[in-house]
Amino acid sequence: MTEWVVLDIEGTLSATDQVLVTLYDYARPRLGPWIDDHADDPAVVEAVAQIRELSGVDGGTDELVRVLHGWMDADQKVTPLKTLQGLIWQRGYAVGDLVAEFFPDVVPALRKWHEDGVQLAVFSSGSVAGQVAFFGHTTDGDLRGLFEHHFDTVNAGPKREAASYHRIAEALGSDDITFYSDVPAELHAAAEAGWQTVGVARPGEPYGDADFSPHRTVSAL
């Protein structure tokens, strides 16, 4: 038995469409109003500064939103976009507009690991705030208590670089970690960092037919 299980979300625990369609569509029209309505929020101030730095845009909210929509259309994992999306989703879950759904095998597996003493963490490109809101408002209730840590591309780094997995291992204080993901390149990076790896090949998902060699591969948790 492994000491830690670290889990990807999109395509591993939850359908990709829930993120790329449901959550993206919810955030898209709310980005501009959120920036304007929370202009004094330090997280929003920092995100706006990052957007300007990365894009070179120095105009108003409309121009910032055009940049953000372009990143969304390209499914780019850009930090200020993830920050703003996470804040909007956090609010959406809190007011009941959004409810997280999982593949049928997921919640029983999470609870079984937890009962068996395996410690659980998440490493997703979505912001930590978004992750916490996601697990706090699900069709199976509040699951936040199952997880010990949350990692994203801000506090860990890019998901396809071994250095990110070294950082997580240091934070967890363990080298006995198993990573579950539907993306082979992420598994390669985790394995390079010395982690055990499991590819999750779910039928109908974008990486469902990918080559997961040499990683052990499952179709459900």
Q: Care to describe what's here?
A:
Strands 3-2-1-4-5-6 form a 6-stranded parallel beta sheet, sandwiched between helices. It contains 9 helices and 6 strands, in the order E-H-H-H-H-H-H-E-H-E-H-E-H-E-E. It is an alpha/beta fold. Helix 7 links the parallel strand 2 and strand 3 (147-151). The chain has helices at 16-27, 31-37, 42-55, 61-73, 79-94, 106-115, 128-136, 162-172, 184-192, and strands at 4-7, 119-123, 147-151, 177-181, 196-200, 216-218. It starts with a strand and ends with a strand. It is an enzyme of class 3 (hydrolase). Its cofactor is Mg(2+). It comes from Saccharothrix mutabilis subsp. mutabilis. Belongs to the HAD-like hydrolase superfamily. MasA/MtnC family. It catalyses: 5-methylsulfanyl-2,3-dioxopentyl phosphate + H2O = 1,2-dihydroxy-5-(methylsulfanyl)pent-1-en-3-one + phosphate.
Radius of gyration: 17 Å
Residues in helix, %: 40-55%
**SSE order:** EHHHHHHEHEHEHEE
Oligomer: single chain
Detail the poorly predicted runs. Answer: none
Derived from helix and strand composition plus strand pairing, the structural class reads: alpha/beta
The proportion of strand residues reads 5-15%
User: What's the overall average pLDDT, rounded?
Assistant: 96
In whole angstroms, the N-to-C terminal distance is 15 Å
Largest sheet: 6 strands, parallel
Tally of contiguous helical segments: 9
General form: globular
